Amino acid sequence: MAGKGQIDTDLLIIGGGMVGLAQALAVASAGLRVVVVEHQDPGALTGAGHDGRVSSVSYGSHALFDRIGAWRHMSSRAGAIREIRVADGGAPLFLHFDHRDVGDRPFGYMVENRHIRLALGKALADAPDVTLLAPAEATEVRRQRTGVVARLADGCEIRAPLVVGAEGRQSPLRRQAGIRCLSWQYGQTAIVTTLRHQLPHHGVANELFLAPGPFALLPMRGKRSALVWTERHADVPALLALDDDAFDGEIMARAGDHWGRIHCDAPRWSYPLGLQNAERYIDTRLALIGDAAHGMHPVAGQGLNLGLRDVAALAEVLVDAARLGLDIGGDEVLRRYQRWRRFDALTMLVMTDGLVRLFSNDIAPLRLARILGLGLVDRIGPAKRFFERHAAAISGDLPKLIRGEAL
Amino acid sequence: MTVGAASVDPVEIDRFEKIAEEWWDPDGPMRPLHHLNRPRLAYSRDRLCRHFGRPAADLRPLRGLRLLDVGCGGGLLSEPFRRLGAEVTAIDAGADNIAAAQRHAARSGLEIDYRVASAEALAGANESFDVVVSMEVVEHVADLAVFLDALVTLCRPGGALLLSTLNRTTRSYLAAIVGAEYLLRWLPAGTHDWRRFRKPAELGRHLRRAGARLEDVTGVRFDPGDRDWHLCRDPRVNYLAYASKAEKS
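^ Those are the sequences you sent over. The predicted structure of the assembly is below.
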């Protein structure tokens, strides 16, 4: 802890979650000084019971983690996704993506959030330009035309030309700036947990579209898979209340017999599905990243990846500006970040929204259309490769760090 | 002039505050200069790094270099050069500009030596710098030969000079006067007198006579696609120039 005193820094980040820490490491990799303020104890964040969720780390996100020195600390915990199979419940046609069609590398990896957090924490040890203050609370953040002054609960004062809001969906900085959010709710809840199974998954991610919503098994390290199981709100409490055997039985009834005997070996978490998008990602000397800017439900596994693309774009914009001697918190610099990110985020939100709407209902014509759609996409090479590249997040105007280049 | 001292009239301070705001508002009257700033700074940084053998990816590559910014206005270039590590002296003939620039630099926490002065006067006082920069100024001076002579005098042997201006071509007439002043209203009408625009060869000739060598001319163009200014080969409208002054033999 810094205690009382004053810290002058190049960048202040509020929120030391996965996206906030990645932002700190990315910016510091070019020599800028960063202070991160996180209200939770890092030990509590990485404890086994805190967050049992698993994230899909796209190939581009893996490249970023590699560049900021965190990948080597999590690679032994990462399960590679080499194939993606998308099937429509009960229908014979399915969509099949093979990594060999997009170059011989995995689509991405499944890594437990806890191990991502631990790896980022280890990378901080090699980043002397990052100061993590945790647990610490920013009681006041004053953003003025000339700079930002933040006061912590212990009286410490931090001055920086720019503050980054990485506090997640309920971002206090976003509220303070009066930035509204557009949100959607789907009346669905995702049940999330991890499974052990008898047979190996061979790196195959299975996404099965059932009437209530998608049911996905994503390959983790070893004979384990992450489960993302979407159900109508009303049906979830009963499923969560089942005893272990009955719960495993429900999973096997849906998953089929590819995995042999399956049993759930982690607590069951549930998250209501929804999307939200902030009307602006910037304000005077403020930039929002990750869930503070846009939130997604877990269907397409793109939430963390979208956040890491914010990280890469913001880091590049800030470092370019700093190397020109420009004020990195100036309006002109922040607008570049917003212009770059907004289109990508909106595209991803709309695509995900489309997936949910298309696959979460049982109306006969829609069902037929989606069965045909899947079969058709599978047969049309270019369309399929586009989806595959997007699944692996290597298309579009990507920031350097996502392409695996140094800033 | 010391701004902020007790002797300064608060009404005056308000006025400087307003002038500083005009200079520094990216959507204000100086908007075109804000947009031009990026290519100008990128060009300057890259040429200076090569000239003085510094790494361009460094955050303070100009550390320790004494730099003079002639015609600094509100300090739009002086501040970035200071952040890049240079020890900046910045002069302008307009006392209001200097007062506004001083206020802004103080708020940004940047130490810059701002003075109301002309290049000719400074040259007469035997001052000398590693780098002399003068952007968007030569098209406004009455006697180019005298002005460039002063700039070269102010540059130490082995130092570098950076200039930017508008070329005197049909294209620049259309772009700067008809386009920027009358059609787009980026600039107040009458800002430029096309007859004073300088061809690169004229700059080269005057610089050579004054003892410096024109090393490079690079164009700047506006891309309506990304609505940004970029460096380009074509110097027919706006261009940047880099010159060197030989070491004493």
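Chain B has eight helices and eight strands. Chain B has one domain: 10-245.

Shout if you want it in another format.
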